[in-house]
Amino acid sequence: MARHSKLQKQVLALYRQFLRAGQDKPGFIPRIRDEFRENARIKKTDVMHIEYLYRRGQRQLEQLKDVHTKQLGSFSKPGHKS
Question: DSSP readout, 17-65?
């Protein structure tokens, strides 16, 4: 089994924290899993992007832990108009 880098371990720990924080909020777990699966496609060599997403994830986790949080916001790419 391959050893994980420090950044990979941090991302995995963040994922586990998200899953724990989302247990008490209905509908959050599938959204969390989808988001992490989507970002798992990022190349391991794209460290700057991974670190950016990690910091963004930490901020979102703090929001999720807030007892008043009822839903997660998201940013979507604008559609192309023909």
Answer: HHHHHHTTSTTHHHHHHHHHHHHTTS-TT-HHHHHHHHHHHHHHHHHHH
Domain that holds residue 14: 6-65
Spatial distance between the Cα atoms of 14 and 17, rounded to a whole number of angstroms: 5
Per-residue model confidence as pLDDT tens digits over 12-61: 999 999 999 998 888 889 999 999 999 999 999 999 999 999 999 999 99
CA-CA distance, 42 to 56, in Å (whole number)? 15
In a domain, 10, yes or no: yes
Question: Per the domain annotation, does 49 fall within a domain?
Answer: yes
Has residue 61 been placed in a domain?
Answer: yes
In the chain, how many domains are there?
1
Q: What is the pLDDT of residue 1?
A: 58
